[in-house]
Structure formats: C-alpha cells, structure tokens
Amino acid sequence: MATQRENILTTATQLFYEQGYDKTSFQELADLLDITKSLISYHFKSKSLLAKAVTERYSVNNKNAIAFKLYQQYFSKHRYDLQLSSAVEIRLSTELFFRDPNAARYIIETLNGNYEDAYISHYKQFYIIHDRQYHLNINPDIDEISLLARGASGASQAVITDFINGNIDCTMNECLDYIVEMIFRFMRIDEARISELIAMSKKIISQIDFQFLPYFEIN
Fold first, then answer.
1. 58-107: per-residue pLDDT in tens?
2. Strands (DSSP E) found in the chain
3. From the CB of residue 209, how many other CB atoms can be counted at a distance below 10 Å?
4. Which residues make Cβ contacts (< 8 Å) with residue 156, sequence separation at least 6?
5. Within a 10 A sphere around the Cβ of 74, how many other Cβ atoms?
6. What angle do the packed helices 82-99 and 172-186 form, to 10 degrees?
7. Which of 12, 33, 10 has its CA nearest to residue 21?
8. How far apart are CA 40 and CA 25, in angstroms?
9. Which of 2, 37, 45, 80 suits 176 as a labelling partner, its CA being 20 to 30 A distant?
10. 120 phi and psi angles, rounded to 5 deg
C-alpha cells in the first residue's frame, strides 16, 4: 500500500506535468488527496522541495528503466561499459525535455522558481560511481566530487533552458551531443573517447525502442 508521502508525490507529478509547476498549489493537492495542507507541508516544506522530490523520483525511475532495457537489448550481448551506459542515459534524460512540451514547461518553471532546490542528490552519486570505476583523479581535500556534480548539473540546466527558450542556434541533436560531451569533459575524459561515446550511444539508441511517455517517463 502506498504511503501518504508516495500519494502526494504521485498526485504532484500528475499536476506538475498536466498544468505546470506555477499553477500547482498545496491547496489543490490537499483537495485532491482529501488531506490538509499542513500534512503536505509536514512531508515537503515548500513547493520547490516537493518538485525536487518529484524530479528525483522520475529521474531515478528513468535511470533504472534505461539501464534495464540496455542490459536486455545490448549489454547482454556486449561487455558492460559504464561510460557508454551513462552516455545513453544522459542523452535520453535530456531529450525528454526537448521532445515533450509539458516536461519542458516543468523544468523551465522549476528552475525559474527556486534554483537553490534544483540540485538533485543522485548527480553526486553519478560521479562517485565513475570515480570508483575509472579513477578520475578527483581531489578529496576540496570535495571535488560535489564541485563536479554541482558544476555539471548547473551547466547542463543552463544549456537545456536556453535551448528550450530558443536562445541557442543549434539543432536538437547538436545540443544533445554537446551536453553529453560537456559532462564527460567535467570528468577529464579524453576527447577521442568522448567522441566515441557520443557516436556509440546514438547508434545504440537508434537500435533500441526507447519511448518518451507522459508524466516524465522514459521506457
């Protein structure tokens, strides 16, 4: 049975997707769930923190769905490559916002609302996993993992926002290529390897039937 917190997240996801972040209120959520606003505030201190939790949930769900499909249709026949898997995940997770106008509206409105709540915790885990696998020469004395995660997420969000708003003169594929390239550059990956990852990830995506579905879902 779903918990009260999970019910709030599910209903908030629906409203954020259907009508946007700006038009969604705690009062509307409370009315739909037949609970009080104070109960929503107990779980989520602000609307921006609720949106952050919604984003974290669908991001992790999409990450797992992409990884599972990659394993079924590609890595079951090929040697597992964390960097390649990540390149596919980054490209698809970003493309969701470019393909779906409701998802695009949501990310624009949430970033305009409270930037300090936009950092998603699993970004740091992404770099921790890559550091363990590839020994990225991270400086632990200055918590460079956190710096990398915040720098890359902030830069990616800026590029995504400007592309959606029409402020960047490039195609969608060129923008997706650049975001993947940028994130691996933050990890100081060799340029030739980055180009290989971009080409291979695009080829894999073309061979696997990934779908962008309503409510921020990739399958």
1. 999 999 999 999 999 999 999 999 999 999 999 999 999 999 999 999 99
2. 212-213, 217-218
3. 8
4. 94, 179, 182, 183
5. 17
6. 140
7. 12
8. 11
9. 80
10. -100, 130
